Amino acid sequence: MLRMTADKQSFQGRDPFGVRLRSLFDNVFSSQKPLFSLSEKVWNPPTDVYETANSVVIKMEVAGVSLNDLDLTIKDHYLVIRGCRRESPCLDKENFHLMEIRYGSFERSFPLPHNVHLDEIQAQYTNGFLIVTVPKKTPVSREIPVRSSED
Hints:
Layout: H1 8-11, H2 16-28, E1 47-51, E2 55-61, E3 70-75, E4 78-85, E5 104-111, E6 122-126, E7 129-135
Antiparallel strand pairs: 1-2, 2-7, 3-4, 4-5, 6-7
């Protein structure tokens, strides 16, 4: 496994090329947008995926995205979440001092385990978070009798 680490202290004030190189690596390996994109408008909302005793939960931060701009589908045992956070048309960008909020389209795909009920998935949008709950199937076990081939 390749690990890249950089000590911030070593770049400060001594190595302007190192600072630029570190910034480049930070941008390339940042989770805010895909590594390769034809559009700067693409972004990846931060997401948590975790499991409880009864379900798999996908929690995505999508503040500012309208419900009408969210689309969830199941395809080949993947949950695909698409959406768009639209930029306010009345903003005058000439006066911005800092602009970190990403706008535009996004698409995320999450593989789902086979022990879930795809037809019982629920999604809820609360306080800027999309929470998708995928219920697990109850494990089925049974005894299998073994017969003799002499019978």
